[in-house]
Amino acid sequence: MIEFQAVTKRFPDGTTAVDELSLSVEEGTITVFVGPSGCGKTTSLRMVNRMVEPSSGTILVGGEDIRTPHPAVLRRGIGYVIQQAGLFPHRNLLDNIATVPLLSGWTRAKARARAGELLELVGLPAELGKRYPAQLSGGQQQRVGVARALAADPPVLLMDEPFSAVDPVVREGLQDELLRLQDELDKTVVFVTHDIDEAVRIGEKVAVFRTGGLLAQYGSPADVLRDPADDFVANFVGKDRGYRGLSFLDSTGLTLSQVPTVTIGAPVEATGSEWVLALNEQRQPRGWRSPGSAPSAALREGDLHAGGSLHGHGSSLRGALDAALSSPAGQGVVVDDTGAYLGVVSAETVLEVINRGSAG
């Protein structure tokens, strides 16, 4: 656990970056600090490993005051990931990852072996170990940065806007990778971002900071989206917070309907006035035949309209609504764990479930 007890940071020019911050970060969870520029979120993070010294108050990590150990000893026990990875350009990847274990007294052979294991853990092939940072993409460099932070197996991982410098597609992949790693490693993670979408996607708890270093709200992503503490939080999370909040409601209450289906490769008759869903031999959806389609001796995928997104049965209502809205037929296709067709759901059905939940 990380505990902030009335922590304040005031700089020599009189600027208060963090003002009387009190909160507890639960062990083994991802907690996200989010807010606009100048709100004190990064300063709060950097006080945990004493990259910034608090002006007053107390920070405990695992029950120990951070002022007790020497700063260098403290930092070797806390993983730290920053923007654009911060790798040493003159060292290859294995030596970059092995930095903290070597400083902690590991043998070179043991440290490099650990580095090789971590490359694979973060989804990079072992043969990249001899390359240098300049030979990698931005996303690959960030993965190496995460591997380096994990090298000495620290219980705490601090991440300061680590994915903000990469494009949106790579960023989503890195977020997925972090969530996968957390499932395996169960670290106590404090993650800083200015992006509320990133915060609610990866955080188990979200701390929203306002300008002046004040904590505006601290709670689960669902709580922050559903019940903002004040107008500042409501404006920061955005007017579409209700839509985002669907990510935290499961779809087990949805009633599925059925539509006509056909099989790829089979002869088909002309369609009437309704859309027909095409499936492969494994009953996985491949697209839609539009109303009024001509007969065919053998249905081909090229004859179909793209089907929109698919919704995994039992996952979030947001996924169900996305599937319905993206479908040319106005029906979201629901599939099981193997991707096989189970039924369809309309946007109206999703909204009925939401309204029932609100009434309850």
Give the class from helix and strand content and strand pairing: alpha/beta
> Into which percent range does the helicity of residues fall?
25-40%
The named CATH superfamily of the largest domain: P-loop containing nucleotide triphosphate hydrolases
- Rg on CA atoms, Å: 25 Å
Terminal CA distance reads 35 Å
Can you name the CATH architecture of the largest domain? 3-Layer(aba) Sandwich
Please report which band the strand proportion falls in: under 5%, 5-15%, 15-25%, 25-35%, 35-45% or over 45%: 15-25%
Task: Determine and state the CATH class of the largest domain.
Answer: Alpha Beta
Q: Biggest sheet, in brief?
A: 6 strands, mixed
Number of domains: 2
The average pLDDT value, as a whole number, equals 87
Taken in chain order, the helices and strands follow as EEEHEEHEHHHHEHEHEEHHHEEEEHEEH
Number of helices: 13
Low-confidence stretches: none
Shape, principal axes of CA atoms: globular
CATH topology of the largest domain: Rossmann fold
Strand order of the largest sheet: 6-7-8-3-9-10
Give me the count of strands. Answer: 16
Can you give a write-up of this model?
The protein is an alpha/beta fold and 360 residues long. The protein folds into two domains: 2-238, P-loop containing nucleotide triphosphate hydrolases (Rossmann fold); 261-359, CBS-domain. The protein contains 13 helices and 16 strands. A hairpin with a 2-residue loop joins strand 4 (56-61) and strand 5. The radius of gyration is 25 Å and the shape is globular. 39% of the residues are buried.
